[in-house]
Amino acid sequence: MEKLPVEIFDLILAHLTLTDWKCLRLTSRTIYIRLSSFSSYSHLHPIVLSPKSSSGITLLDKVTSIQGIDHLSLSNFNFTNLDTLLQTSDSFQLCLNKLTSLSFAGCTTLIDSLIFYKLLSYCTSLEKLDLSNYKFFFLSNNFSQNLKIYPSIKRLNLNGNIHLSDYSFNHLMKSFPNIEALHLLGIPLRSSLNSSENRIFLTFENVCSYIQQHQECFRALTISFEPTLSCDTQIKRLFLTIPSKLTYFHIDGTLNVSTLLHFLLLFDNKLETLVVGRLVLDHTGCQPLFSAIREYASNLKHLCVFLNAPIKYYGTQQQKIRFPVLHPSSDISLSSLKQLNDLDIQTLYPLNEIDLINLFRNSLINLKKLSLPRNTTDDTIKFICTQSLFVSSLTHLNLNNCPSLTNHSLLLINKYLLSLEELTINDNININDFAFIGLSICGIGKSIEWLEQIIINRQFIDDLSIWTYTITHQTLCKCQLPTYLSSSCIKLRLKDFNFDYDESSDRILSILTEHKLFNEYFSSINNLKYLRVLKLHQCIQLTNRLFRFGIHSLPDLKYLDISLCDKINDKNLSLIGQACPSIETIDLTGCHQISENGKVTLKKHAKRVKIIDF
Question: Which N-terminal stretch is annotated as signal sequence (predicted)?
Fold first, then answer.
């Protein structure tokens, strides 16, 4: 490779995706040196550096020719690595000077905060600092020695730092006086402790005091509370006056709808993003929740609500006791939320089929992302696909753990939701290969039925005579139409059709899918031309037909999850590379019938694919 002409390298780089750049897995120092001056780096924005490879450092030595680098991850560096790099690389210092985002997320090695502050001194343009899931940094005693101020940093991510104490938090906030976005998820806030413990935990009183002093600056705030404690009282104390600039609010804590109503009144329709975790409903169910949001959060663009599921009840008991089924006359609507484009109601189990249909009736015209609860039915999907106002704009649909959905729902999705970019159907025991192929094949009687009452071209029926070795019964009505037949007039019975893999079934499917009128009357998943992510985790009925007859052409597909689909084996797996030439990741975890040879064959056809297999 090192002897290839520069023009060839330039051509290769021009076709690499951003994901390829994030990895930067080239190992040859010579290649890095040669590529460092190429114009293809103009689309390079984030870099993840590792101290174990000198190639990444060599790349930074040429950083003066790279335009637009705005994010750098240094999570794997320790004190010695960073100190050496700062002293020896002028290009690294220049890179830091231009950064707008810096990440130490998940760092387990950088335990000396002095070098951390020294590094920040070079980041004069830095706006976002990610210190999430940091393991040891906040145990250091060097906070008190830092007297420097970093006014440019406005967004600080401290999520997951369970060892963060009041002492460390206060010193950190003094260094960053202009914070506009503060994220404290995964840090369960506790009540005040005695003076001997104030270096051990982060307390609500300390955080509350800071928020009250700076509430006019905040644009985004995420906060967590101890799961076993009610946070209703604390939330009502959080803001002394109306936070005029706050548009993003995420609270993870056990609270009642009345408390939610209290701070929605305070925000006065200014919120654009609202995420509420562990909400507790009373006997009235979801109606007060929707009424409060509809009345006092009409400018929301993103809404996500998680219910607080009781620990001691399971399954149907849980729904009967804590999640009462609402009366059909309940006012379930978000009609005032004209700008809403992201709605997550996965855990709103009290909503029945009628409630969900009412929710989507004549509203949410701009909705793009939707996550539905587990009791979603085929009729709900049918209404969304055929009558909702957002059917043409929906790009993300999450049907995770919706056990009652059948092939019928997926067939409707294939036909109507043509703008989908991400589809999640995890943990479904009913959906099988035929939904992806576009066929509605019934298990009882093994018959083919058309999806809707459409008009079927007579030519399709006339061709059935060539199927005599597979068709055992054909029912036609006495229609007077000379050319067309209604779909209700025909029902085909298949002889010896096996839902598992066999040659006879493949012959039938070949005849069906290769027919010149098949695409006109049967909508397969290949209609979803913009699909980028497809998640089919533990859809246990899926077989190799998914690749041979189902996925023929998904040009934009990047991620495929078929983990725990244990009927899939090596056969036809290579076809995924031909059907999805740009695929980057495929999850085969738990697919025990797929061997190493199958993975090698897959990579021959999908050369850039990363296989996940645990």
Answer: none
